[in-house]
Amino acid sequence: MASVKEPKVAKVPKGGLVASAPASVRLIFPTMLRPDLARELIASVRRFHPDIPITLAEQTDGEGELREIEDGNVTRMIVPFDTGLGATRNILVKSIKEKYFILADDDFVITEKLPLEKALRFMEAQEDAVFLGGHVTDIVYRKDGSTVCKDDRRDSNIAIDTTGKGVVLLPREFVGGPQIEFEGEKFLQCDYVANWGIGRTGFFRETGFAWSEEIKIGIEHLDFFLRLKTQHPQARVYFWENLRVEHHRHRIVDENYLQYRRRPEFVNDYEKISGFRYQFDPTLSRVQFFRDYPGQVFLPGSERGRAMAERERFNKLHGAYVSLRDKLVSEKQRHTELRLSLAADRRSRLLNERRRLQGVATTPGATGKSLGFGEAEQEALDDRDDHN
């Protein structure tokens, strides 16, 4: 396991807004070679949460590029350059004293006030919750600054095939799972969420559970939740739709940064660490992939054919389900329209009959027989005449 030097801790010089911070939660994030994005994240936090304390860990060999942040409630930690995401996150979690932490990445932007009070009340009430993930909207940029697409990342479950040593990541909307109603909101139990959410600091300190320091980038996130599921099955991960953030991917493209970001060797070597081989179908775009087949497949090569057959079977079942659902919706709509039509027709006939009866009263010498009434109608007419 890679060794990590004890980081230097640098308190950002006081200045700007200094206010009493919430005592129970702190936002943390690692950063490297992207100072502009880190500043934008901090600014977005301050727009909606001026008091929340922030700790960032900058991976740098020198003094770093974020030493000029003028916010007395931001703590900057300096760690060796290219320490890696996993090791840097571990350093951050170990450094904080708050009961909870908000995990973020440096290219996130907060666009609305976070419902932290309710989220923390949920964590207090649900003692088995070690991480509450939120909704991440990916915004991908072209080189000219325009956006390519928006994509949403939610919650997933991890299915493990112990016989074939296979792991499948399945969006929870396809497979379902337990959920908790709390203060009028639904909190969904799952296995896997994005790098955004609220973690319980005590769990990491008491169990020693941490991100792998052998994986600097690429697949450290999946590895984290896969080991959490298998090593601590009693620990629960939840997802809450209303804990939202935007992920501005590739908005600032720096070739120096990209050479550290795009390192497939950590993905390729994952089998040596975990026994699983990462495989992804490159013919499917991300949006198409999640829509047509719910998940990325992590399988040994010998199981690839079986996984593809299972994918095809699932697609057929899902297609049949969608077809049946649409047919039921159409049938329900037709039934509703027929019921409304019959009701309208009956109402129209009753109104016409009432008008006809009312017209009899103004017709001298008119009888039910002369007007074509039946016996029951004639009796009603006679009864009315008796009261006039």
Précis, in short:
39% of the residues lie in helices and 24% in strands.
Structural overview:
The chain is of the alpha+beta class. It has one domain: Alpha-Beta Complex (Spore Coat Polysaccharide Biosynthesis Protein SpsA, Chain A). The chain is built from twelve helices and 16 strands. The chain has helices spanning about 35-50, 85-95, 115-125, 170-175, 200-205, 220-230, 255-260, 265-270, 270-275, 285-290, 305-360, 375-385; strands at about 10, 25-30, 55-60, 75-80, 100-105, 110, 130-140, 145-155, 155-160, 165-170, 180, 185-190, 195-200, 235-250, 280, 295-300. The strands form two sheets. Strands 1, 2, 3, 4, 5, 6, 7, 8, 11, 12, 13 and 14 form a twelve-stranded mixed sheet that branches. It has a four-stranded antiparallel sheet with strand order 9-10-16-15. Helix 1 (about 35-50) links the parallel strand 2 and strand 3. The longest helix has about 55 residues, at about 305-360. The radius of gyration is 32 Å and the shape is elongated. The N and C termini lie far apart (about 105 Å).
| Overall CATH class | Alpha Beta
- The total beta strand count reads 16
Rg, nearest Å: 32 Å
Number of domains: 1
Helix tally equals 12
> H/E order of the elements?
EEHEEHEEHEEEEHEEEHHEHHHEHEHH
Segments where pLDDT lies below 50 for 5+ residues? 1-21, 281-304, 384-388
Cα-to-Cα separation, first versus last residue: 104 Å
Query: Which range best describes the helical content: under 10%, 10-25%, 25-40%, 40-55%, 55-70% or over 70%?
Result: 25-40%
In CATH, the homologous superfamily goes by the name: Spore Coat Polysaccharide Biosynthesis Protein SpsA, Chain A
Shape summary: elongated
Seen as an oligomer or otherwise, the chain set is single chain
- The CATH topology is Spore Coat Polysaccharide Biosynthesis Protein SpsA, Chain A
